[in-house]
Design a protein that fits this description.
Elements: H1 3-12, H2 15-28, H3 32-44, E1 51-54, H4 60-67, E2 73-77, H5 80-92, E3 99-103, H6 106-109, E4 116-122, H7 131-139, E5 142-151, H8 160-171, H9 182-190, E6 195-201, E7 205-211
Parallel strand pairs: 1-2, 1-4, 2-3, 4-5
Antiparallel strand pairs: 5-7, 6-7
């Protein structure tokens, strides 16, 4: 990811926004396809399985899967504000001793990180320009499951990019939103030896869970 995009993530997804989102999560819990993703794994049984959550935000997936029995949790995020909010909640839920946090661009950090039974990316592809590198490096970390939520490649979903444009103007950053080809992403994931085993869609978003 270009450094300007990382800088934009720090500016837009800042401490104020993280605290607001954490407050909402504490009140309402996970929603939409995030909840569907969580439900899939809790239904499978999680005892002792490790999790690598990339771009995990305030940590909804991490908190819920840790509560359901997941073991070691690794969180990588480009926003220091969101990492701090996630750690705060992990400490409150008393599982911070089995969680590690990494701040920065996952592609640049990938060589320093180990594999995990479950790898998740919830609404991350749309914040990343070089999706090929992101998919290849993250899919290689998945021992059993690889779960992603990202925009459908439909004409109406391209309006999401307006959000990125408006945010860049409001915060005076070069942050952008990207809509990547569904077929291309699926091809990249399959080329890593993973096959789709479950999927769900909403108007804008799609969730696909792959198994190895």
């Amino acid at each position: 990811m270009a450094s300007c995009q990382c800088d934009g993530i720090e500016v837009i997804f800042n401490e104020k926004m993280a605290n607001k989102e954490l407050k909402t999560y504490r009140k309402k819990g996970p929603t939409g396809l995030t909840q569907a993703l969580i439900s899939f794994f809790t239904d499978q049984g999680l005892e002792g399985q490790s999790l690598l959550d990339i771009g995990g935000g305030v940590g909804a997936i991490q908190h819920e899967l840790a509560a359901a029995g997941a073991g070691q949790v690794t969180n990588v995020d480009g926003s220091s504000g969101y990492l701090a909010a996630c750690r705060e909640e992990a400490e409150l839920r008393k599982y911070a001793d089995r969680a590690t946090y990494h701040h920065g661009d996952f592609v640049e950090l990938a060589d320093e990180l180990g594999q995990a039974d479950i790898v998740t990316l919830d609404k991350v592809f749309c914040c990343y320009d070089d999706v090929d590198s992101l998919v290849k490096s993250s899919a290689a970390k998945a021992i059993r499951y690889y779960a992603v939520i990202y925009p459908q490649d439909k004409w109406w979903t391209h309006t999401i990019r307006i959000f990125g444009y408006l945010m860049s103007k409001i915060y005076s950053t070069t942050f952008r939103v990207f809509i990547h080809s569904t077929d291309h992403i699926d091809m990249l994931i399959r080329s890593s030896g993973l096959k789709p085993i479950h999927s769900e869609k909403q108007i804008f978003w799609q969730m696909v869970i792959y198994g190895r």
